[in-house]
Amino acid sequence: MGITDLLPVACDGVLLRPLAEVDAEAYAAGTEDAAVRRYAHLPLPEYTPDTVRELARSDVRKGLMSGNLAVLSIVDEKDEAFLGSLVLFDITAHEAEVGFWLSPHARGRGVATRALTASAHLARKLGLRALTARTEPANTASRRTLDTAGFLPDGAPRQSTTPSGAQLTTQHYRLPLESLE
């Protein structure tokens, strides 16, 4: 069973579904937020609505079809209002890394924790054994969210290359999916 067969997935009012062209304006606006620019380490230096529409038509679709990348929108389950983005990447037979960011209006309400919980349920359905994540030690909101979602620190902070290609010190986390049974 592929990723697309298992989407959308929901958790307590938050829905994960593939990034779509309808999300382009809100996604592009979200990437202009100072916290997203500082901590998300997105692959492209700038996102416009046209860039996001093209990503939805090409890379998002290809990643889902191949099963090695899932660029998902975090949306409100009731009205599908865009809240942020969650990406499963470096997907192998046993694990995947998860990255996420929220638009400013969605912060402070547990949205990211519920999105991570939904992504863990998706990963289990895919047969994965663990989800990993990493964040800068200074990103206290992300660290708190990962802790709340059940992720455990995986060793001491260490150098890593982010999706944007930046080299920096990150704290790695791991969520064993067997613990969700």
Automatic annotation (TrEMBL):
Domain N-acetyltransferase stretches: 14-178
Biased composition (Polar residues): 158-172
Pfam families given in the database record: Acetyltransf_3
GO molecular function, one term: acyltransferase activity, transferring groups other than amino-acyl groups
InterPro entries membership: Acyl_CoA_acyltransferase, GNAT_dom, N-acetyltransferase
Native organism: Saccharomonospora cyanea NA-134
Record keywords, A-Z: Acyltransferase, Transferase
Keyword Transmembrane part of the UniProt annotation: no
Family matches, as Gene3D superfamilies: 3.40.630.30
Protein family per UniProt: Belongs to the acetyltransferase family. RimJ subfamily.
Protein name: Acetyltransferase, ribosomal protein N-acetylase
Region (Disordered): 134-181
Stored CDD domains: NAT_SF (cd04301)
